[in-house]
Amino acid sequence: MLIKLAWRNIWRNRRRSLIVLTSVVVGLVAIVISDGLSNGMIGQMLFNQINLNISHIQIHKKGFNNNKTVKNFISDYKKVDEVLKDDSSIKSYSKRVFITGILSSANNSSGVNIYGIDPEQEAKVSIIKNSMIEGSYLTKNKRDIIIGKKLAEKLEVEVGDKVVAMANTLKGNIGSEVFRVVGIFKTASSEFDKTAIYIPAGTEQNMLNIGDKYYEYAIITKDYGKVDETQKYLEAKLGNSFEVLSYKDLLPMLIYQIELYKETMWILNVIIGLALIFGIINSMLMSVFERIREFGVLMSIGMKNSRIYLMIVTEAFIIGIVGTIVGIVVGLLLEIPLAHTGIDLSFFSSGLEAFGIGTVIYPVLSIGNIIMSSIFMPFVAILGALYPAYKAIKLEPIYAIYYV
Amino acid sequence: MKLLIKLAWRNIWRNKRRSLLTLAAVTFAVFMAIGMRGIQLGTYALNIKSAVELFSGYLQVQAKGYIDTPKLSLCFKEDDKLSEALNNTKGIDGYSKRVYADGLISFKENSRGVAIFGIEPQKEKKVTTFVENIDDGKFFSSDSSNEIVVGTQLLKNLDAKIGDEIVILAQGYDGSLGNQRYKIVGTVRLGVQEFNSTVVFMGLKTAQSLLAMGNNINVIAIKAKNINNLGEIEKTLSTKITDKNLAVLPWNKVNPELQQAIQLDNVSGILFLGILIVIVAFGILNTVLMSVTERFREFGVILSIGMPQRKLTYVVYLETMFLAIIGLVFGNILGYFINYYLILHPIVFGGEIKKLYELYHFLPELRSSLQVSIFINVSLSIIGISILSCLYPAYKVYKLEPLKGIRQT
User: Fewer CB atoms near the end CB (10 Å): N or C, chain A?
Assistant: First the structure.
């Protein structure tokens, strides 16, 4: 009965209720959209990093991640191969030789991260094969190299040109090899395009005098939500001489950023809620004072104060709920098409690329944040109604009836 | 007009509670907006100043095209004409010459790709502050000594210590490979982690001889007296430098990442303010509309006794403006205090947040600003939005027929 009464009361002054409702809707739409955008941005950063070269899980010799030197290779890689083959939660993996070094062309030189890979294996763990914009991906040829667009610009080389890679060998002298650029890639991260180069694993092993050894396993699991379990399993199987790192260990700042972001969402909600609450208090007060006479009548015929109080709070609550639902629906309607087409922010393009996001943002909804807002906003509406409702029940019935 | 103002003023205080609530909403919005803009702009200015003074300089002279493809061969000499232009341009505090190259540093079995900077330590002190950011050891004092300074993290990665001798390999100006032995005499720590693990400083002449580039340099970094008239300095300098192959670049072209990070953050900040202001606008619309419809009867009477409709809408507008302006005054005062407080006591982050800020090339510090434009822009947008949200209620009053108004209950 109370709810029905409250519902009817709301629609007695349609214009006023609609205006309050609209302000709640605007707040919610704003929250949904900004949430989707930031979520999409952070998600893309993480996704791009994982797909570029981080992968889900990496295995190294213990200590390699903190000190990526030539002597920290995995000596018993056959053991790792066997363990990985037995694990059904693993989708694919790639063995990599890794060293930092220098790449020179006739015109210029630049510090680089040299990845020695098996082209077929690597294509199964990273998007590098699909990021080629000129020439082709690595083939069987031992002297092939692929480099990023930014690096190619810096070195002023094109597909077909010769470059020289140099790095410290296991013996302590400088090893160098001549390569021919067969392809150029462009990824979402300009930093990666500036520093990463790929050559066949065998060539790099020769160059570094390390025999058939590798430095890094990059693993993609079947279910990315179960990475922690796979990590624990591998750690137990491989023992102490290896380090098994998940993307969470390898990208701690990004993971932390995602955590921090959840807290900023709270702040956003509170500020918008505060801005809304003034409007809610005001319109509830007005509607209460307009109806003082009516309340007087209700009281005189025996309606309890607590019921009147509850009725007014319910009115605000309904406005809050309806506004929230409409706001979320409108926000979603605006966002769903955007999630497919993406929002092109190429105006900031180089800024976004420098942070490895890419220039087109695809908004992603986080259900958690939407649930949070959809609980929080009606709660704000209730808060806004407390004072007006208190004003209504403080009246003397007789005085209220005579109130003009 | 005087009468109308008086009328409007009295009308506001007839329903004190409602007016105060609207006032509070406006004040809150103005306060939030000024506080947030203050923190944003203050933090940007702080970051720009520190980045510019730490390393890049306010302006740089480079060979044309060097900014897009930084390579050794895009270099130039400081001839008499150039030094005259630099010395005689108003607003320039000092300048220093630099050479940039990529190389490979090796110590025992460790090697790393590094960024080599050939600098003049004595002159650099007058332009930037990184020479003073010494973490351990000392900076070499001569341009031609055999000593180098490396990033703190780089020293750790190489497993070396101060006093150790290392070998640097780099491709020279003529394409040949240069290979030299140097002694580490100190380490520097600069804000950005990535920099700390790749940077090597050596004397300008030392670098020129390693790279076989004679007297050539890649960059002249310039310190300006004031960051606000860089455009002017850039212009004067560009006309004085007659060499067609040289370009004068302000910091935001030299360091576009910082500029873009700022733009990105700035746009999200402005969007958020927009949302806040729109919500407040709805609040204003609601109160004005309510207070107007409540008084239709009264308005009907006023109209019947001969008040022109136009003037009545003025009254409605004046009421809104009063509320907006009083709210603005309070909001501006509160905003001024919070910004002033945050300038004196900036928020300094530690721990994880600090690392996160460094990742984005930002200082882990929030500082505010008392830039006049913040107060003006916020105030103007609030006034603008009040005028807008008043349109509909005013239109209602304008269309009101006296008799209908009187009969309204």
Answer: C
